[in-house]
Write a structure and sequence with these properties.
Number of helices: 9
Strand content: 5-15%
Structural class: alpha/beta
Order of helices and strands: EEHEHHEHHHEHHH
Helix content: 25-40%
Strand order of the largest sheet: 3-1-2-4-5
Length: 200
């Protein structure tokens, strides 16, 4: 998470949406940077409203805008699956090594997911306590150029994005039955993503 007081903007680091690359590009220019502890770096909107926004409002007269990135939900789960398959996690409870993507998604959809499949929800991350999306500006992961242009204009700073914290490459596919279950169980994630149009 990064807070830009003068520019009245809070960047929310949605997991697995290039947030580390964005932080590396802009982290030295923000006023508040929450980075080292993953649970703090990836502070969801509702927790921000409860704990951080009251403090930030002591530093500025106007409520800052909020901006985040959302990834196509199956691709998002695929990134988590690939990220947790990396060699350094093998043998740990977080590892997805030797687990198929179907099994990973089935575990994610279960009532009590194992640790390797506890990755939350993008919709929940960016929603307030009433379940309403709280972001002033929301960009699709496949419109990173649009996000960069927005940030450049808003912050008055030119920058390019690198490629940090990437997941290992792998080919994944999801069975139609599990896809339907996922779409039903996390309909809001798909709805938020689908309603955002790409530029012409």
């Amino acid at each position: 998470m990064m807070v830009f007081i003068k520019e009245k903007l809070v960047f929310f680091a949605t997991p697995k949406t290039a947030s580390t690359s964005i932080e590396l590009a802009l982290g030295t220019t923000c006023d508040i940077r929450i980075s080292k502890i993953p649970n703090a770096k990836h502070t969801p909107y509702r927790k921000y409203q409860r704990l951080l926004e009251p403090f930030i409002m002591t530093l500025t007269r106007d409520e800052p805008d909020s901006v985040a990135v959302i990834r196509e939900p199956v691709d998002w789960l695929g990134s988590w699956y690939r990220y947790r398959s990396r060699d350094e996690l093998k043998g740990s409870s977080n590892s997805t090594a030797n687990i198929s993507f179907d099994d990973f998604v089935a575990a994610y959809l279960s009532d009590n997911p194992p640790e390797y499949a506890r990755v939350g929800s993008q919709a929940k991350f960016m929603s307030d306590k009433d379940g309403q999306v709280g972001m002033s500006h929301l960009f699709r992961y496949d419109n990173m150029d649009g996000l960069v242009r927005f940030l450049q204009n808003r912050l008055g700073k030119q920058f390019t994005l690198g490629h940090a914290n990437q997941s290992p490459e792998a080919t994944i596919s999801l069975s139609p039955a599990l896809l339907r279950q996922y779409q039903d169980a996390y309909a809001q994630d798909f709805e938020i993503y689908d309603r955002l149009s790409l530029p012409e």
